[in-house]
Amino acid sequence: MxxxxxxxxxxxxxxxxLLLDEFYDVTLVTAHFGxxxxxxxxxxxxxxxxxxxxxxxxxxxxxDTAVERMRDDGFPRSGIQQVHEAALEAVAAKYExxxxxxxxxxxxxxxxxxxxxxxxDRHDVDYxxxxxxxxxxxxxxxxxxxxxxxxxxxxxxxxxxxxxxxRARIRERWNEAIISEVFPDHEQTRVVGRA
Length: 195
Description:
Layout: E1 2-6, H1 11-20, E2 25-32, H2 39-49, E3 52-57, H3 60-73, H4 77-92, E4 97-99, H5 113-123, E5 126-128, H6 136-146, E6 147-153, H7 162-173, H8 176-182, E7 187-194
Parallel strand pairs: 1-2, 1-4, 2-3, 4-5
Antiparallel strand pairs: 6-7
Helix pairs in contact: 3-4, 3-7, 4-5
């Protein structure tokens, strides 16, 4: 069965791909808005892991609505959640199995039972979240054993995730100060191969 796994090039979605590979024909899918070419980092990670790759361009209206909400809220959670759900919808239009790398203890994005069931019912697909039973420590232990990753501040370790393009969209629409107001400093990871 064909599985489209939302893929950022980071450790969670990479580990999800390794887990799903036993059961499905996995294609790693990066959703972007065409704002930057950072999605190509995810393509490089997919190649390093040995998986098929596809990029899907979402409507920029999704990004614009998300950054407006993020600016109004003063934090990224709701905007990133909105983009993730739009990306799941796009993958559901092309694959019979839709997956992502969301963990049990993720703050954002998350996929509620209601959202998963709605996606499945409306698109006649199966939604799979192989890391939903794993906490951060368990994921980190598995990543250390099975993947080679780079890590650092978000601006220094670009990958094909929503945050990179949403930051760029905020920069285009407003300024750098708004990015600092909305996004907390945090570490990103980018997969560069298998261990």
